[in-house]
Design brief:
Strand 5 and strand 6 form a beta hairpin. The radius of gyration is 25 Å and the shape is globular. It is built from 20 helices and seven strands. The chain is an alpha/beta fold. The protein starts with a helix and ends with a helix.
Length: 471
């Protein structure tokens, strides 16, 4: 009996010591095997973490044969912008202050404190000084692998559409005038054709109105999507936002922490996670999972009004890409595979033009809780290397002879006017008829393409429609 009482007393004392000293009850990023918050890093989310896993069940269409493919691919993981690279050394100062808070000033919070592993990780962190401003936004090695991997995956499921021998008539590639999209194209080409391939991209026009229309449209740039009075700014003035900033500061041992410092830590967390998907960034430990979703919603608000359904004109903006897709897939002649390599704004405005992942209720500053299951979640829509793929099928034994499946990041897109992801091509042409017949300058941005360019693209669409009807 005495032995039992002694054992019980000892276990109780050890338990108290563990709670007080080892932070077992607090969240520890270093011990979290799942780290689900890494799926909520908005446009800086790693593709490998959120890509679809059910394509093997979605690509096969009974009694149909895949014939054509149209791809709009965001570039892979990149390095930071100039400003972030310049500010990054500031993180070493924050690192030292956090360690000082915990070890000298004793301002470690009683709850939600950093665990020993996370504090040690932050203490050991150093900025990679080899990343200099002349490398800003360059594609990383992981970004190259992102694109090489998506090419290999789609080729595995569609070997007849994506042959491994390059033919400049069969394939059409094009990228924007940036290092990250150029290298993304090369990574994708290597995935299809192997090293040392001769794949070439089309010339880049002086005004790239197809892949970067937003660069030439003042109307698009001038809308208030994140300025004073915007939902984005309202959210960043809300009680939830301010409490989250306070909680983050408290977790790191500060009374107050500048919002710019919080943003810098969050950006580094997201970049480093995307650069090495099999490892983790120690700066992610600065945030509890619930902090991350609050920060993510701010990003979603910004993009929702900047490139998404927040402004009605955004749904009409990227008509050139939609016209191009309809024309290329309607035509019975080559190119059979069209692949474009561009940016997040282009991908988001394309999805918006197509009505993909539209919520019934608009995202606002005051409905964060209600929108927890929202469809407009940029972490899933447009991560690094995000891609939209349209696969055209011939179905000679079916009543509808032509069908299409749209994929977004390797997931079949579910549209309420299609059958579990499979759409009749005639329904697609009818659904997007207004865009197909539009003059893109007048449809949204009058300051965009020249009359000649617009007429040429409209002529292509009309010719493709005629060929389709005759076919």
């Amino acid at each position: 009996m005495r032995l039992l009482l002694l054992t019980t007393l000892l276990a109780t004392l050890l338990g108290r010591e563990r709670v007080a000293g080892d932070d077992d009850l607090d969240y520890c990023f270093g011990k979290d095997a799942e780290r689900l918050q890494t799926r909520h890093f908005s446009s800086k989310t790693a593709y490998q973490i959120v890509k679809g896993t059910n394509i093997d069940k979605q690509y096969q269409v009974p009694n149909c044969e895949p014939k054509k493919m149209w791809i709009f691919h965001r570039h892979g993981t990149r390095l930071p912008t100039v400003n972030t690279i310049k500010e990054a050394p500031r993180l070493e100062d924050l690192r030292d202050l956090i360690v000082q808070n915990y070890r000298q000033l004793r301002t470690k919070p009683d709850t939600d404190a950093l665990c020993t592993e996370d504090l040690l990780g932050i203490r050991m962190w150093k900025w990679n000084a080899s990343i200099t401003v002349d490398m800003e936004q360059h594609l990383t090695s992981q970004g190259y692998e992102d694109l090489r991997g998506t090419a290999k995956l789609y080729q595995r499921y569609y070997p007849t559409v994506l042959p491994s021998r390059y033919n400049d008539t069969y394939y059409l590639f094009r990228h924007t005038d940036t290092q990250r999209t150029t290298q993304s194209f090369r990574g994708f080409a290597e995935g299809l054709f192997g090293e040392g391939n001769l794949a070439a991209a089309a010339d880049i026009p002086d005004e790239d109105l197809l892949l970067r229309p937003y660069d030439y449209c003042p109307d698009f740039k001038d809308k208030n999507y994140k300025g004073e009075g915007s939902e984005y700014q309202k959210y960043r003035s809300s009680a939830l936002w301010n409490q989250t900033k306070s909680d983050i500061a408290r977790r790191l041992g500060f009374t107050v922490l500048a919002e710019d410092d919080i943003k810098l830590m969050f950006d580094m967390c997201r970049y480093e996670q995307a650069w090495q998907v099999d490892r983790t960034s120690v700066w992610c430990a600065a945030f509890l999972p619930e902090h991350v979703t609050v920060l993510e919603y701010a990003e979603d608000l910004k993009y929702y009004y900047g490139s998404g359904y927040g402004f009605e004109e955004n749904t009409r903006f990227n008509c050139r890409a939609v016209q191009d897709m309809l024309a290329r897939l309607s035509s019975p002649v080559s190119p059979h595979v069209v692949a474009y390599f561009a940016h997040s704004t282009g991908l988001q405005t394309l999805l918006t033009a197509l009505g993909i992942n539209k919520d019934d209720v608009p995202l606002r500053a005051d409905n964060y809780d209600a929108m927890a299951s929202r469809r407009w979640m940029t972490s899933l829509l447009g991560p690094f290397a995000g891609n939209f793929v349209a696969v055209k099928y011939d179905c000679p034994a079916e009543l509808e002879k032509e069908k299409v499946v749209f994929f977004l990041n390797q997931n079949a897109v579910q549209l309420d006017w299609c059958n579990v992801g499979l759409c009749n091509w005639s329904d697609v042409l009818e659904k997007y008829k207004t865009i197909a017949q539009a003059n893109c300058d007048e449809y949204y941005c009058r300051s965009g393409a020249t009359i000649g360019q617009t007429f040429s693209l409209l002529a292509t669409v009309l010719l493709a429609a005629i060929v389709y009807l005759m076919h």
